[in-house]
Design goal:
This protein has about 280 residues and is an alpha+beta fold. The protein folds into two domains: about 150 residues, NADH Oxidase; about 120 residues, 3-Layer(aba) Sandwich (NADH Oxidase), CATH 3.40.109.30. The protein is about 30% helix and about 20% strand. The protein has ten helices and eleven strands. The protein is globular. The relative contact order is 0.16.
Amino acid sequence: MNRHTTEAIKARTSIRKYSSHELPGKKLSEIFDILTTENEGPFGNMCRFWLIDSESYRNEPVKLGTYGFISGLRYIIAGTVTKGAHLNMEDYGYVLERKIIQFTRMGLGTCWIGGTFRRSEYAKTTTFHDGEIIPAITPIGFPGEKQGFRERVIKYLARSKSRKEWSELFFDRTLSKPLTKEAAGIFANALEMVRIAPSANNAQPWRIIKEGKQFHFFLARNKVVKESYKTVDLQRIDLGIAIAHFDLSLREEGISGLFQTANKFPVPEEWTYITSYTAFFSE
């Protein structure tokens, strides 16, 4: 997990068209190994994942699908986390994104899906336990050879190549002072990986205040996303994805740290404090 992480983060894109070819046994074995290991998030929640071959349910009364957003859909990864647990959505986003980065390094395509699938139907594909929730899923497979017009339109509407500037996302001790790449120093690459992380409606709801070796993570909610997706809190999942990009990129550079609750900053009312990261190294 400590090799070529940032390259995979940069290479990953949401794939909505898949090849109909069956995944070879070796790939399926690798996927299974990834899904069944390292399933605890940085905040202590255990996640559970399984691979679904939709062909197995063709003659069953199970209606899998993503409301037409994905073509060539065959293999899907679903997962659960305990409903209502502290920072459960952040842990789920972190753990699944860590796996998605590994799948990207295997040459496989994925696409985060949180609001356009029937959770009750996917629950039928496993032994579902009380207190569990399926926050999000992803198709997985070889990308289709040609991107169709419909996929290009969806990507354009999602503004998949558009990202906020550093000055809107990262701050140096106070909100009145945007953090520059020069001031970020050795943390600049990890923060850039946060900036390009995927998020619902490409809203990028994360904000980070740097204070020495501490980085304070906040959720700045997007009202459109909040009103559009009410089954689960997708923006908290997005925070988990961003935290994964930050943590894993730093690990690749040999920097470790600890996530913990720290003193809160005076921030706008629409911001929610999530966690703080303290790096372990001597400046």
